[in-house]
Every structure is written in structure tokens, then in C-alpha cells.
Amino acid sequence: MTAAVLRLQSWWRQREPRERRMLGLMVLALAAFVLWYAVLVPLRQARASAQVRYERAALALVQTELQLAQLRTLDQRELAPPEDAAALKQTVMAAAQATGLAVSRERERDQDSGGFGIEVDAASPQQLFAWLDALRQAHGLAPSTLSVAKREGMLRVQAEFDPVE
């Protein structure tokens, strides 16, 4: 190693001062080029990529916080259930009609309970779940019993409702 350094020093001393300055400037220019393209450009690209990831994460955080706030307001709102059996029946039937669920039969249960049942011969899963969700979200209701069977590619639904006491 020292022999190589000694040869390099000897070679350097043999150069004219003008050549030394020119070689020094060339080495400096080459070092600046390497620094620019090997270090600074990749760092800038990494910074830009990190900024994009940060902005996406911040947006996702804001959306999540908004959804959480909406869920909290849903939990805190007081849903007034229908007051009597007639209002319950009207609410259930209106929700079924609004979601496109065609009720084929209605049946009254015993007079003491005031409950009733409905049957739907053909419903799509989307209609059924839209109806159940509408009852829960808008009125805080759910069937006391629910029977669903697949028949000829559609769903056959039987649901019974009891008045809320």
C-alpha cells in the first residue's frame, strides 16, 4: 500500500502546477457529479415518495376519524320504537315497500301479544339485507324471529315482530 502511495506522490510532484490545478478541478467536478446523482437525487425521490405516503396516511386518518364520529352519533341517538302494534306493522310494511321487498302474506299472532308475522316468497339477498338494515338504522327494530330459506335462486323469508314494551 505504501509503495502505491509513494508512486502516486511521485507522479503528482512531476506534474506542473497548472496540471495539478486542472486535475484537482476535474476530481472536484467528478466528486460533485457523483454526489449529485448518487446521493442527492435518490434522497429527493425518497422524500417525495415519503411525502405522498404521509399525505395518504393523513387522509386515511381523517376519513377514519370521520367514520368513527358518525358511528358514535349512531350509538348515541335515541330511536323511538313504534308505540303500538299498529304503528309497528305500519313501520315494518313501509320499510319493506321502500326497499322493494314484496310481502306476500301477513299474519296476526295472538291478540294478547299484538305481534304479527310476514312472509316473502321471493327476495334477493340485497333486498332482504336492505330491509333489515333500514329497520335497524331508522327505527331500531329487528324481527323477533327470522327464517330464511333459499328457493329457486331467491330467498323465502318469514319474519315475526313483537311490539316493543
UniProtKB/TrEMBL annotation:
GO CC field: plasma membrane; type II protein secretion system complex
Main location group: membrane
Topology in membrane: Single-pass membrane protein
Keywords: Cell inner membrane, Cell membrane, Membrane, Protein transport, Transmembrane, Transmembrane helix, Transport
Source species, domain of life: Bacteria
Cellular localization per UniProt: Cell inner membrane
GO BP terms, alphabetized: protein secretion by the type II secretion system
UniProt-listed Pfam families: T2SSM (PF04612)
TM stretches of this protein: 21-39
InterPro entries registered for this protein in UniProt: T2SS_GspM, T2SS_M_periplasmic_sf
Family per record: Belongs to the GSP M family.
Protein name, per record: Type II secretion system protein M
Lineage start: Bacteria, Pseudomonadati, Pseudomonadota, Gammaproteobacteria, Lysobacterales
